[in-house]
Amino acid sequence: MGSFLTKEQLQELAHAEDLSESPIPTQMISNGEFSPVPQTQAQAQVEERLKSLADRWSRSQGLDRRKFLKTASGMAAAFIAMNQVYGSVFNVSVAEAQDADAALERAASLADQFIFDAQVHFIKDDSPEGSNPANMLGIRRFASGYLNSALKESPMVLEDLKFQNFVKEVFFDSDTDIAILSGAPSDKVENWFLTNDQMNEARRIVNEACGSKRLMSHAVFTPGQPGWLEEVDRVIEEVKPDSWKGYTTGDPNGPSDYRWRLDDEALVYPAYEKMVKSGIKNICIHKGLLPMGAEAQMPGVTEYAGVDDVGKAAKDWPELNFIIYHCAYNVLLPTDKHKEALEERGYVEWASDLAAIPEKFGVSNVYAEIGSSFGISAVMLPRFCAGMMGALIKGMGEDNVFWGTDAVWYGSPQWQIEALRRIEIPEDLQKKFGYAPLGAADGRVKNKILGLNLARHYGLDVAKAEAACAGDQLAAAKKEYMAAGADRSNLAYGFVNNKKI
């Protein structure tokens, strides 16, 4: 798998595939863009309680623990264990864990909920980072072998880079309907995660194989790099991406010569003009998620990772939508200081600053995507996660918060979908800060966040999109997969820190 971590950092980490069999990660997983913190004592407690609960309830269902934890009842048991350790934040009943039929009935009732994921990625095995066509061969192998025999091409000569597994985890083992394939740049072209052309090719092959629009794609733009404006022109003309992706920190690999600000009039505004004219107006910007000790590794990076450049750019360019990825979350390990800020002021570092921009600058074109930030905080400190969601929705409005998972790094996104369906803002935080409840799993607020908000911004007619997905070749293949006894892996594919806190 390609990585943005240094060799020194990687030596201290382990692969997430070696985690426990829990359907929900019991320690922080890094997608490769930051160094994960060790498992906390509370997370270790969740892991042990889940094993105990699973041993008890698996026997009553005639399953071993591993098989039980792959079921809907096993997922419920994981949330029960989290509530026992962290306090009641997730809506889950013991009946779901004890009774397979009760768990399956709930899962079936939510299976048709429209899920649109703003950020997904490929997994790579033992190949140069984004520099060869092996990525496309993995896609073609999936397409020709599972969906559309007409797509068979020349014999495979490179290793399958687990794209089959990506499709299994994202589309077969979760309720995800549509997703946007994302990438990341580097100062060195050969180290791009995926090139703009590769993302475009992936989109084409998957959608042709499925017979419907299941995959969208970003095009990465890189202000300051040689020929970057010409690449914007080329992408508009040839690639026609669904939206743009930018990293103001320049290169997630490390120190970059091409850091930039969203409000740099001389450098970036000419690109905005091109984007407006092209009609491709959704600009997705990576913010936050700095590794601990980032300034020591990448001096000066903090200045470019925050959100103080968002307001002016959004005000100057009301025709564009500035979608801030990870909601600029920058609290990998909440300290007592962070927890006090949440409890006393309802403040989450950088995420609350983002939420304040619409009112502060009088703009309505700034949005928060919660990929990685939601998943990380949900397994680190659920109450903190709930408070973050309350702050984002209060400041930005329920129409302006978008779903994203950063799958497939954290395995199937189903556990993240279930976490959002089940999470609720504690009543004391609601009363103290005026947060509205998140409501039912398929209620207004969660339906908007999980898919309807993104659909609006990408011009999708949800009813037509749902009908297309329900009748395509992927849906037919998924029915066969489910009938054969779906086997969710419960694996994650990033990096973990095996030390203890």
UniProtKB/TrEMBL annotation:
Amidohydrolase-related domain span: 261-460
Keywords for this protein: Hydrolase
InterPro entries tied to this protein: Amidohydro-rel, Metal_Hydrolase
Gene Ontology molecular-function annotations: hydrolase activity
One Pfam family this sequence matches: Amidohydro_2
Protein name per the record: Amidohydrolase family protein
Lineage, highest ranks first: Bacteria, Candidatus Eiseniibacteriota
